[in-house]
Amino acid sequence: MSAMRGLTQFIGDIRNCANKEEERKRVDKEMANIRKHFKDAVKLTPYQKRKYVWKMLYIYVLGYEVDFGHMEALNLITTQGYAEKTVGYLACVLLLSETNEFLRLVINSVKNDLMSHNEEIQSLALACVANVGGREFAETLASDVQKILLSPSSKNMCRKKAALCMLRLLRKYPEGFEEITSDFKSKLLDLLEDPSLGVVTAAMSLLIGLVSHNPEFWEDLTVHKACKLLSKLNHTNAFKEFGQEYVYYKTICPWLQVKILRLLQYYPPPQREEVYSVLCDTLSKLISDVTMQKNVNGNNSAHAVLFEAVNYVIHMENNKDLVSAAVNVLGQRMTATNQPNYRYLALDAMQRMAHIPEAAQQYKKHQDTIIKSLKDSDVSLRRRALDVIYSMCDSNNSELVVGELLDYLQSTTDPTIREELVLRVAILGERFSPNLQWYVDTILKLMTLAGDFVSSQIWMRVVQMVTNNEDLQMYAAETCFRALKTEGVHESMVKCAGYIIGEFGHLIVNKPQSSATAQWLLLRDKFYVSEEWETKQVLLSAFVKLINVHPQLKPQITELIQTQTTTIDAELQQRAVEYLALTQPGREQMLETVMDMMPNFPERESILTRKIKERELGTTDRTLKQIQTEQNKNDDEEPKELELSAASVAHSSSYISKLRAPSATLSSASQARGGGG
Predict the structure, then answer these.
(1) In a 3-state reduction of DSSP, which class is residue 67?
(2) Residue 19 Cα to chain centre, angstroms
(3) Residue 677 and residue 670: Cα distance in Å, rounded?
(4) Among 77, 546, 559, 672, which has the minimal tally of Cβ within 10 Å of its Cβ?
(5) Helix 554-563 vs helix 533-549: crossing angle, to nearest 10
(6) What is the mean pLDDT of residues 190-209?
(7) How far is CA 568 from CA 361, 563, 574, 576, in A?
(8) pLDDT tens digit string along 385-407?
(9) What local confidence, expressed as pLDDT, does residue 616 receive?
(10) How confident is residue 297, by pLDDT bands cut at 50, 70 and 90?
(11) Could you give phi then psi for residue 247, rounded to 5 degrees?
(12) Cβ neighbours of residue 308 closer than 8 Å, sequence gap 6 or more
């Protein structure tokens, strides 16, 4: 190509163009010249054909459309010269897609090149098949590629390319690999014992692809051979056996070791005692022998194998010694202040290992280090540290962990992590609360510190917990009353406290500081300063609850409700009109029935827990079936979150049906008792 003066001159002209318009003119001129010569392609010499195709490819790479010359380019594949085949195959890869009809014209030529004894020509054909792929290439040429891979006479370079070519065809057309013979299976596994680690690495990549589609078919010998190979690579004589060619910064073929460990994760630990023992010894060596080095590449190669070994220990689960060793090495990497990538991977592995009891207990040794990571400057590290802290929390350390998270919430202003932090604290506070009073205090403090990030599910979950636990109701009402008396109360706090005081305020009415009048005046003041319509709706429902329990407040409350019958918010206006209808003389029994205390909520999984589970399941890992299952589950359960009112009037439905009030009025009034609208 360096001798093609015309091509060199054309590239120089393009680079010297002052603007896009000038470049376009030069390209149009050259394309016209190429089209002119291709009209009489028979007279062109092989050199000229190569030159014009190279120019055409360069124009295509620049981003211009090339809609001619495809046939002339593909004809170069059928020639005998290596230089012509090179540009022909490159044109095929760049210009044609797997569905292009022109490909059918070159299949026979590609097939002949695959059977060639020239390894360079074989390599060109393999590269073309791998890059173009497609159903037609897979059906016609897969058997030829397989012969190159398994033939003992094939050069190592061709065997490596053949393995990767088959992997590409497998990914593009997996249906063509459903019926694999036992002979192919045994010969492919035999390649794992090939003297060339390059061939072994390529064969391992193909094997992982095949195993991912049909693990059961490959299980019998794959695990044994993989364990044997991994042990061989970490033997004390490995450097002498394989030589320096495959040693990358003191680690023998780290990419191959990573692939072996990933392959093993498709299967349970080996059942044969001798294989299991060898594997455990190898894993122990991989985990314990890695030390921090000054060389960055050396560190990366060693730690790539280390973290994959930890992943396999997580997969094994039941080996206490390996779990202990893995936790210790992860804790050491947590202190690598100048290696944020290692700290992130260590936190990620800890989070995935948290379900193993032995690991969860040992995490407490590194609890201070993990909590310290919440203040790291890297947001990805802070998020991962939050995941680990969430995973390691239990009933023994919940007060300490939640306290640290609340302190961190108070100090951080990063909105990307505050929302996640609020959700985690709410879940941990409910799941591991030493007592229900502590839970109420925790959520109220959460609303105080980060009210903007407290969703309606959080404060409504508090309402459900208080409603379902009679011993908690007086404490919750008293605590909410005190909380509302502070300055700058967030709307979330007002909604939660307003609901609880309206429902259970009568339990604290005997205390001078929280009399019925004091409750009314406090809620009234919050009503006037509230900016959210939803908050006003909740408080309006609380006012009618007060009328039901404290009739002496009726004149003052109905006067306020009357002012809301002309408000611009349709929901608030409708509630005001219907509540006024309920408080009319002669409807005392209806008011008492509709505004009776809420019954207990049915026990079910917390919507907060379900929400965090959905977040932990990455969208890239979710299958269509998982997404459909989640959607169906949400469709089934969502109405339960909206039927706060229906449950409250179930016991009196027979009575209400006999009343003469309009059905729409009764329906809306019963919905209002839910507080949320």
Answers:
(1) coil
(2) 44
(3) 10
(4) 559
(5) 150
(6) 91
(7) 57, 11, 10, 12
(8) 888 888 888 888 888 889 888 88
(9) 57
(10) confident
(11) -95, 120
(12) 257, 258, 261, 262
